[in-house]
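Q: I'm writing up a methods section and want to include an example of the input and output format. Could you take the sequence below and give the corresponding predicted structure tokens, formatted cleanly so I can copy it straight into the document?
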Amino acid sequence: MQERLAHSLSSERWTKKDDRIVVAVSGGADSVVLLRLLHQLKYDLVVAHCNFQLRGEESDGDADFVQELCASLKIPCHVRVFHTRQFAITSGLSIQEAARKLRYDWFEQVRQESKSAFIATAHHSTDHIETLLINQIRGTGIQGYTGIQHRLANHIIRPLLEFESDEIRSFAASNNWTYREDSSNDKDEYLRNHLRHHVIPILQSIDGQIGRTFRLNSDKVLEHLELHNHLINKTIQGITRRENGQLYIQIEDTKSYPQPHLILYRILNSYGFNHDQCKQMVSAKNVGATFRSTNHTLVKDRTHWILSTHNSGADHLLIHDPGKYLFTEHTILVDEVHASRTIERDANIIYIDPTRVTQLHVRHWQNGDRIQPFGMLGSKLLSDVFTDHKIAQHLKTTIPILTDQNDQIIWVTGLCFSEKFKLKLSAGRLASTAWRIRISRIAPSS
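A: Here is the clean output for your methods example:
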């Protein structure tokens, strides 16, 4: 087993003999065998052990065992005690998810502080089978068929991945290497344990080399996935562009590919959109159809899907430059237009002199707000403006209010423009360069 491990490490070119490695040691058979084999191969080692405080005295016993083992081998040992249940509650994770995050974050901390090249974990072939089955049961998609990889994120290696669990335990027994038994592994309440105790033995009775079969299949999937990712990334580069802080995705070019919703999903998944939403985006007919994730909004234009960060109910927006902005349920388009342009007569469009306004702010109505309406000498309460236009009470706080840097109201969208900010016109044309501002409500998705 030592020779096979040495050959695997050298043939894969993971490590050099002068590399320092952090070995994650739980005290169980797998991690003890990994530690002892790497020690026999004379690697420079550091051990990291996690006490998750999930099994009372048994957890403390594991920590004591690992420290004594490291002392006998003269290997530095780092032990961290975690309040795992409390962390799981505050972070909204399951116990298993919380423990995974805690240990990998800490392993990386130990790696950096000890100036180590790698973190080695004792995952083996049976772990790989369990992970593949769990991924398919939970519906993780094609990525789930790759299972556990020999190397992850450049720093994490799994040197025992070609070895079976029974093989590792037999090797430990033949060398009289003691280890700790985790009592929680005997309980079927975890899906992984249920598969280990009941499903995998059946698969092994059908195929005595089931671990190797699953590994070969995973390697084939990984090869195809690498090619798939390369082609998808090239496709995405050709159909997207960024402009004014927004992502533009060409609609027709995307739809020219088979399964266009999968391309959208690859683009939008990291922004919080799910598979079903991407299918709805492709089938949406109406211009203005809108889809939202936690922090982003995607709007269907005539030629593009446009992705923007939305305010999630925020009541203030700052505008410095021309561009396209989103404010709650509204799209704000700011263009710079040149002198002598004919102005548009549209209740949703205004023109302002950018030399008079250093910053534009968009907010909601506040009690006591006043404006000097266009053509009037005195000011007027916005509440009276709303009354004049028969705006229902519940709609007053949905109308965007445009102000200058001093919070002077420039425009009550669609209703009233301020006399103070009027432009000089010549026969209905602009006398100087101006900003043209259009604010329109986003249509609900169909």
